[in-house]
Amino acid sequence: MTTPIKPASWTYAEQFVAEDEFLVAARARAEEVGVAPIGSGCGAALRFLASVLDARAVVEIGTGTGVSGLWLLRGMRSDGVLTTVDIEAEHQRLAKETFADAGIASNRARTITGAGLDVLPRLTDGHYDLVFCDGDKREYAAYMAEALRLLRPGGVVAFDNALWHDRVADPAQRDEETTAIRDLGRAVADNESLVPVLLPVGDGLLMAKKVWEPEA
């Protein structure tokens, strides 16, 4: 059995890809408005994933102040467009500041103000390379169902907070949010049309690839 990673090594891994002044400023904005952004390790993983996918079209549920969005945009193709959804218009205004300060062209980030489950059904089937979910944890299963419709074959869905502050791994924790995330993990792992992985970066990043459909 492998030895559990020590805190110093976990911190080293989380900080392996350094954040620049634009991400630091976005985090400061998040703190001011009470938003909890993704960790730097999770951000680096998302950028890597978007780059590997050569992503042209990405959906994000939970704009915040643009921390995760900036990481994603930096991994996407230079002509890629991020569609980011949040219920708070003020948060999206701050995210636009983050993107503009970092030199991201305005036409590369489409912000839609609204609840995820109201917006996702209006988006195009099979059009997206990546769907990143960081919204209401109780709605994660519903986001998953929408993501499977939105993703092209070979596309990836990702969920932040998949470990939920160490609560998911503890069967004694049965609050609504923890249970929803735990149930999602089981459903993803059991779905034969997905290739899943759970990475212990940040607060946990659950990802699943939509397998290619067999040729007729």
Order of helices and strands: HHHEHEHEHEHEHEE
| Rough outline | globular
- Provide the CATH topology: Rossmann fold
Percent in helix: 25-40%
- Describe the strand arrangement of the main beta sheet, using strand numbers: 3-2-1-4-5-7-6
Distance between the termini: 44 Å
Per DSSP E runs of 2 or more residues, the count of β-strands stands at 7
Quickly name the level 1 CATH class. Alpha Beta
Mean pLDDT: 95
Low-confidence stretches: none
How many domains, in number, for the residues?
1
| Strand proportion | 15-25%
How many individual helices?
Answer: 8
CATH superfamily: Vaccinia Virus protein VP39
Rg, Å, rounded: 17 Å
CATH architectural name = 3-Layer(aba) Sandwich
Biggest sheet descriptor:
7 strands, mixed
**Structural class estimated from helices and strands:** alpha/beta
InterPro entries: Cation-dep_OMT (IPR050362), SAM-dependent_MTases_sf (IPR029063), SAM_O-MeTrfase (IPR002935)
GO molecular function, one term: S-adenosylmethionine-dependent methyltransferase activity
Keywords: Methyltransferase, S-adenosyl-L-methionine, Transferase
Protein name: O-methyltransferase
